[in-house]
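Supplementary Text 2. Reproducibility record for the structural model of the 128-residue chain.

All settings were left at their defaults, and a single model was retained for analysis rather than an ensemble. We include the record here because the model underlies the residue-level annotations in Supplementary Table 4.
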Amino acid sequence: QVQLVESGGELVQAGGSLRLSCLASGRTFDLYDMGWFRQAPGKEREFVAAISWRGTSTYYVDSVKGRFTISRDNAKSTLYLQMNGLTPADRGVYYCAARDREYNEGDHRTSVHEYAYWGQGTQVTVSS
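Retained model, structure tokens:
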């Protein structure tokens, strides 16, 4: 299995940028498709972005398209989420998650139930 540790969350002003990182250990990183999720206070955990095991295919929730970029460096076993143009609606705990890779790299999954491995989360706060 794989262990995941997120970092990079902090307090930022509206309109600002952050880059989150997720360091994986354990099994080989490129055995997994990866995703970012977030959870705001009092709300359910929601999908943000996903990336295939080779990084050739990505998918985003509509609310972050054009502002967030998911990427990965398999040599460093690290997943990233570059977040630009942050708004208070983007606040929450951000989690990275892993699932066994799909043969079809365009087959992205957005449900929390389809990811078997999770990090502990990193807090993102956006002030208005």
